[in-house]
Predict the structure.
Amino acid sequence: MTRRGLARQIAGIAALEEPARRALYDYVVERGGAVSRDQAAAGAHVSRALAAFHLDRLVDAGLLVASFRRLTGRTGPGAGRPAKLYSRAPEQLDVTFPPRSYGLAAELFAQALDAAGGHGPAVQKLPQLAGALGKQLARRTAPDAGTAAPARGSARTRDLLAALAALGYEPVRRPNGEVRLRNCPFHALTERHKALVCGANLALLRGFVSELQRAGPRLEAALDSQPGLCCVVLRPAGGSRGRRAARRRAR
């Protein structure tokens, strides 16, 4: 990383030190889409003027990106000025002292596995190893997984969401009972090695979820790539019947 790049990364992290600015950033991230100044101000409980100031500072720091769109849906004379909207920037901040290149090592290993064409013993062993690692991560994230009296219903789901959040997946539960993951911890690798990394991620999350739901799975991991989301979705076990049951519980 160049000195200029390092300085920008440090400035971006430092921008989140201010409490109101951090609250606004967290609100935009949690919404998962474009947010207006009015929405951000209400969500972070600050004035619109203060929200506008801090949101623009977050854009300058590279943490958010701004766009303009008419929220009324009308066009032409009298439609009003487009609103300024904010969403999370695609770039990531990753600062280590002294500098480390774990991402470079991951890229090297992914290239080596991809070069095997999906037929080498290491590639064939990857899902099993990823699943085992998922179980280990579940026990580290929730030490009582599989040993204490199991939580039931919504409490079990809350525990799972908290564990996924601790791993950086940014889970959000949808009305149909699905759990969507708004962040992929392996995003940079996924863009270049999609089949390999998404397959390993699926196996890892299957192991993770099964370990946290040993008393009886309510959610199961499946591949479902959608723009801006992790390639893995957690769905109610039992297919459409499970999803209908989840919708009834959510009412």
Q: What stands out?
A: The chain has a mean pLDDT of 83. The radius of gyration is 21 Å. The chain has two domains: 3-88, 106-250.
